[in-house]
Amino acid sequence: MILAQSGSIEGRVTDGQTGEWLVGVNVFIEGTHLGAATNIEGEYRILNVPPGRHTVRITMLGYDPVTVENVRVQIDQTTSINVEMYETALDLGEVVIVAERPIVQPDVSASVSVVEIGTIDQMPIQTFEEVLTLQAGIEMGAQGIIVRGGSARETMMFMDGLSLDDERSNIPYSAISLSALQEVQIQTGGFSAEYGNVRSGLVNIITRTGRRDRYSGTVIVHYSPPRAKHFGPSIYDADSYFNRPYTDPEVMWTGTTNWDQYTQSKYPIFEGWNSISRRTIEDGDPSTDLTPEQAYRLWQWHRRRDGRIQKPDYVVDVGFGGPVPVISSLLGDMRFYATYFEERDMFVVPLSRDSYGQRRGQIRFTTDITTSMRLNITGLYGEVHSVSPYNWTTTPTGRVLRSQSEIANLATNDPQIPFMPGYYSPGSIYRTMIGGKLTNAISERTYYEVSLQYNKNRYRTFQIQDRDTTRQYELWDGFFVDEAPFGYFGYTITSVDGMGIGGWMNIGRDSTRNSTTSLSFSITSQVQRSHQVQAGVQLAYNDYRIRSFARNPAYDTWNRDMVYDVFPYRLGIYLQDKMEYGGFIANVGVRLDYSDPNLEWYDYDMYDQNLAAGYGHHLEENLPRKSVSPIWSISPRLGISHPITENSKLYFNYGHFRSEASSSLRYSVQREYSGLVTDLGNPALVLEKTVAYELGYEHNIMDRILVRVAAYYRDVTDQPGWVNYTNFEGSVKYRAPENNFYEDIRGVEVTLEKRAGRWITGFVNYTYDVRTSGLFGFTQYYENPQEMRNYLRMAPYQDRRNPLPYARAHINIRTPRDFGPEYFGSNILGGWNMSVLAHWRAGDYETYNPHNVPGVIDNVRWRDYYNVDMRLARDFAVANFDFRVFVDIQNVFNFKHMNTAGFADRYDRESYLESLRFPWRDGDFQGNDRIGDYRPWNVEYDPLEPNPDNDTEIAARNQERIANRSYIDNPSIKSLTFLNPRSITLGFRFNF
Q1: Which of 64, 149, 220, 360: disulfide with 745, CB 3.0–4.6 Å?
Q2: In terms of C-beta density within 10 A (0-12 exposed, 13-18 middle, 19 or more buried), how is residue 516 classed?
Q3: Please, what's the largest Cα pairwise distance for the chain?
Q4: Pick from 410, 386, 492: which is nearest to 235 by CA?
């Protein structure tokens, strides 16, 4: 969807001596063709003003001209500029005024944060996603940002009015170049009727426009030297969890039974190389005979992969723009701005790829066809290269890995994963977008926009190169081996110690292509001074060509397909009115959405035998089809802002917001090799619905600090979830989605922000929310009544999550460039900048109930999360060039936060939990421990002694254990128990 991305400037011009309204004053924006004249009441309004900072010039015969600089315009907002003019006879000359941005925006009726590139430059961040997660109510999830408890697919992102959503999953593509940014508007509620297919968050990104008169650009580079991304030794060290039983001289020959019982429990069981050798000799095949030393040497070959990070992380971000050479003056002062972005983030443990990488190029052309008509054309191409998280399944959404925590957890699922590169397959996504927007002013009060956009996303998940099975590597005289465990080998094979080096490798494949074509038209008119009316129509047509499948070369029974071609579309029509009456500003609108699956679907019974093995491959021939009815919905929207004073306002908004379910839920048909249908989509799913309310208050303190308090409530219904169906014999066993899931989310956000200041700026925000969720109906249906009754006795119906508040704070301290003594033409104390960014999150709740006591729930907690990052920077200016050199320090205080990847298995985790002193335990075993507390690695494990008789000597020993925390049985995989240690990134920024 392509939407308007402009604001307006309004005000009144009066005579500075008499106070009378001035009629016919010319007001225009320098560098544009936009302007207006004052009416009989001295009022003017300029519509369709591009967001950014502008200079407004005001002239009238007989009066000195007035220039207002630094006028800031934001998306969908009105900037007020009231001016007094004086007669030329007073000989004041031209009056220059520097506009000050109002701390409280009176016409905004929702929680909206605007972040400018100048603020982003100060922070110790590298990517656009980090900008978003600094705002109140926003968290980062595995697939994208989470706004006020909604999933990543409930948020939409627009870049210069062009949608960045991938409609296969409804998750936005957020790899935005910081060099292209001008400002970002982040809205967490109260969207106007203009916006459809969105329920939680709205991100409007405004990028830079090339200048008409000269070229300008930016170069940003971040470089982080190669480093471990975990605390402790590498998992590839000889004494790591995965290797020590096979390399420790104390046990490697005779077996781990030589260790004490506790040490045995912390490592895999191994019988010893002597025993391995004996079995090869006794198997009756002389060709496999190995001495203990030879068995050990073969094991070393199969574990030769060393995944220590040897490459740096980096971000390169370059932007350049200006007038188009040669033809600019011939094509309405055509100008351009182009950017290139590239990133590499090394994985904590390498998989089939050793890093997450992306590249992105973008170019934007702007031309003024006439004085009233402007055309913007934007093109974008991006690539994402990572690893698919899917293993023995199809790839319904095609997503790839990014989170270091998720990678670490995958790497410890099986001991072969860190050593066999092909266990998880490489995955890539290629994105193309081109769009154009034509804006034409019919009059000073009315303009329209016509937009066309085409997005295409190509997915490729594939196996690594086949294994070369030629035995060309000689380990010792006359003994040759192939390159295993490298290369893809789909047949079961094990190493000398029993570790798999083939067979169960990733079988998920994806060659999906999906595209979206969007067309929109809108017209905006200032009908009266107090009414700005906008109406529009939006059409989005999808072309899904899903090619997701699983292939196992050794066992056909694991093969399955999810293949379909569908062409759904949706239509949105809206009408909204922005009413401004001094102390009352309202945004009122209504939206009509029409969603058409545009297909005929299978007409089947709940336990239809056509879905069983042997029949499912012939659904198309055996089952009749019926047309799927389109879905209509009406969504009212209301936002009210009440400016109480110039420095405070109260605002309220209410609205119905709807979005389509992901394509895999609506259209998927997954069949096993046998023909058994296991997934069957539901194209008749209604639109997911959120009814949202928000009440907020903003206050300006001393023209320096903005205080915002917002309370919200979100009633979420009709969310889809999978429902399983099983017939009597179990021959029919599939799942299909229904609109059966609901949520109830309510919360409070508090933000304090100091936006301006010569020395110090910053913000702090706090979010507190409560979430309840549950089901309508059931998630299982059995044809067998007894099985159904058994399910109903255990079926959950509601979950209420305990509140998990979180807070962020940023403080930026800078010295003005002219500060301090001057030496050799430079103020050595000026231009310094220190930026500190802090995060806190309350620890999550968990149920630990080893004795299955009825009614016990959420009885233990994780430790709170803390983190502090810092940037130290120095600015330089030479002629027309600005330089910034900086050092970023992530996790300044080297906080350790426990990761579940440190647990070798559930028994390891249970042993850890059993060792903690929780409040509900007795005696010396009672305490205030939380999950995440740990024993220092240099302290030997020494468990607490039971002391039922209150023996003083035992109590004294226990108190010593409690003091040094020796009683805590730490996770076994020391290397991945704690991730993200302190790191240093070097960088520079160059502007011209």
Answers
A1: 149
A2: buried
A3: 116
A4: 410
